[in-house]
Design goal:
This protein has 248 residues and is of the alpha+beta class. 47% of the residues lie in helices and 19% in strands. Strand 5 and strand 6 form a beta hairpin. The N and C termini lie far apart (57 Å).
Length: 248
């Protein structure tokens, strides 16, 4: 009997897609990258020989170094987001230089846990993308890209919180403000003016406290907001761009 894992065909360059499945997957290896989550039923993910029980409201990030199979009884629900290596590298570099190398060096899968309401909302967006696929809507690609950027942003935040000291009160206040569209749609120079520091020094402080550049953080905030507008309104894409702080 052949027990070798099968190889998932490589995606086209810069391809990104999502699918809903109702059965566990046999042992396989991706040539690209995948976020996967169990939406219904009880599943055990076996990754490089180690069993990881499915955790509610959690996505696993898997890549070419992970041999993956699932153990489950009966019908289940799982949702995958598959990203070409070229696209995944670009996403990582847009958010944080060196992030791709950091993630690619890990043998264990990355587990990204979300608040329950956020997790449910994200699954609803992915279901909307399924509909877009059948209607040739131009909203499919930007919405899916924003979800991938959001998940990577959550990973960055979680990894930084493990080692970061408690930030000063003024910085915590600044971070609360830039969660709101009123602020994260502003120009970077206008956001810096909210502090008492020079532009260059503030950018260094932001990187020190978050491990990310201010522009990458704001970009992730804008993309997440754009995905909400695309999902919940009929606003044209060009207007969504304007609403999120882009003038072209």
């Amino acid at each position: 009997m052949n027990t070798r894992p099968y190889i998932i065909p490589k995606l086209n360059a810069y391809e990104c897609t999502t699918n809903k499945w109702y059965y566990a997957t046999d042992q396989h290896i991706h040539q690209d990258w995948e976020f996967t989550t169990t939406t219904d039923g009880h599943v055990e993910n076996v990754i490089n020989g180690v069993i990881y029980k499915s955790i509610p409201d959690t996505f696993l990030l898997l890549g070419p170094k992970h041999v993956h199979t699932q153990l489950a009884k009966g019908v289940i629900g799982r949702r995958d987001i598959c990203i070409s290596s070229e696209n995944f590298y670009k996403y990582c570099e847009d958010l944080k230089p060196g992030l791709y190398e950091e993630i690619n060096s890990l043998r264990e899968p990355i587990q990204i846990h979300l608040p329950t309401n956020t997790y449910k909302e994200l699954l609803e967006r992915l279901t909307t993308i399924d509909v877009y696929k059948t209607t040739n809507s131009s909203n499919e690609t930007p919405l899916l890209h924003s979800i991938v950027l959001y998940l990577l942003g959550i990973y960055i935040e979680h990894s930084q919180l493990k080692d970061s000291p408690t930030p000063p009160d003024w910085f915590s206040d600044f971070m609360r403000k830039i969660q709101e569209p009123e602020y994260f749609t502003k120009k970077i120079e206008d956001l810096v003016k909210l502090s008492n520091y020079t532009h260059a020094h503030f950018l260094l402080l932001f990187k020190e406290h978050t491990g990310r550049t201010l522009i990458s953080y704001i970009t992730a905030q804008r993309m997440n907001y754009a995905s909400k507008l695309l999902l919940n309104t009929n606003i044209p894409v060009i207007q969504v761009a304007n609403e999120t702080g882009y003038d072209n």
